[in-house]
Design goal:
Elements (H helix, E strand, L loop, with lengths): L2 H11 L4 H52 L18 E2 L6 E3 L19 E3 L7 E6 L27 E6 L2 E3 L55 E8 L11 E2 L4 E6 L2 E3 L8 E4 L8 E6 L12 E3 L7 E3 L2 E3 L1
Parallel strand pairs: 7-14, 7-15
Antiparallel strand pairs: 1-2, 3-4, 4-5, 5-6, 7-8, 7-11, 9-10, 9-12, 12-13
Length: 319
């Protein structure tokens, strides 16, 4: 065999060159970076979903307080109903509206308002609940310029995107936040030449305005497969069966498929549903257990391996 043949044979038996190894390592690095970014974004959206649910839970308790006391709780020199994880009670401590006030999911001294959700009220006639969202593109948030006056340390919210519930109703950027619009100046009204005297106009009797309820948009009757739906119910008797049990409103359910995620909130019956999922991934369903409760059923629930098909039911119990 000639010299050229021996060189060719030795080249075939050699391993990868340095350039080839560097290319492979670079490709792996890029893929890992993309997966990490997607995972972080899913976690941020999940925590934001928990924040929105927490504010609705607190708003419900504040509305119950108003129904008993005739006014909303007023604060002096404080920006939260009470430190998170502490109870929210009536002024004489005879009624407990929340066993534990929810904390921000990150709950750190470095987070907005040191982990406590902001509560603003000085008159007793209205209030605002405020949380800092991590997802800067969340359309349900508002900017710093749309915050009510008096919000403490708004600069500590690094995203600059805030979620607000005012008098029980979420406020979004599309509604203009709390910034008032300019009031048009009325034009001169001509004085009528003759004003008739009204005869026996009955005085309408005002009706009591009911306390608002928080009913989410109902799930459409047609649901594309594959799908996941179920109920988060309060397990009051240990039966672990949603039949006859009360549903929990405003709970977050995280549904993760690969690097993609969905975070539905339960409606006033405790029901949630996500339709048109992918069939190509291992699917994990996790209940974000509300503050003050513990799970009484399996949590999380995982469907594996692919394909993921059909209309699936996953119920969760809390106590």
């Amino acid at each position: 065999m000639g010299v050229l043949g021996q060189l060719g044979k030795r080249r075939v038996n050699d391993g990868f060159t340095l350039v080839e190894l560097l290319i492979v390592i670079a490709i792996i690095g890029v893929l890992s970076a993309l997966a990490t970014v997607n995972y972080i974004a899913v976690r941020q959206r999940a925590r934001d979903g928990q924040r929105k649910a927490d504010l609705l839970v607190i708003a419900s308790a504040v509305e119950q307080y108003r129904g008993d006391a005739g006014n909303y709780p007023t604060l002096s020199g404080s920006f939260s109903l009470a430190p998170c994880n502490q109870p929210f009670t009536s002024s004489d401590n005879s009624i407990t509206y929340l066993k534990k006030i929810p904390c921000d999911p990150l709950n750190s001294s470095q987070t907005f308002n040191t982990g406590n959700y902001v509560y603003l009220n000085s008159t007793g006639s209205d209030y605002s609940l405020i949380a800092c969202l991590e997802n800067t593109s969340d359309k349900s948030g508002v900017s710093v310029s749309q915050l009510p006056s008096g919000v403490p340390n708004s600069s500590s919210c690094s995203s600059g995107n805030f979620y607000i519930v005012t008098d029980g109703n979420p406020v979004s950027s599309s509604t203009g936040g709390s910034s008032p619009t300019s009031t048009p100046v009325p034009t001169d009204t001509p004085t009528p030449s003759f004003t008739p005297t009204p005869t026996n106009i009955p005085t309408p009797t005002p009706t009591k305005i009911p306390t608002p309820t928080y009913t989410l948009t109902p799930t459409p009757s047609t649901c594309l497969s594959p799908s996941i739906s179920g109920t988060v119910y309060i397990d009051s008797n240990g039966s672990h069966n949603p039949s006859g049990q009360k549903g929990y409103q405003g709970a977050s359910v995280n549904i993760v498929q690969g690097s993609f995620g969905h975070v539905p909130l339960t409606d006033n019956n405790g029901f949630y549903s996500v339709c048109g999922l992918s069939s190509n991934y291992v699917t994990t369903v996790t209940l974000v257990v509300p503050t003050g409760y513990t799970a009484t059923t399996q949590n999380p629930v995982t469907f594996s391996p692919p394909p993921f098909t059909g209309n699936n039911t996953v119920n969760f119990g809390i106590h």
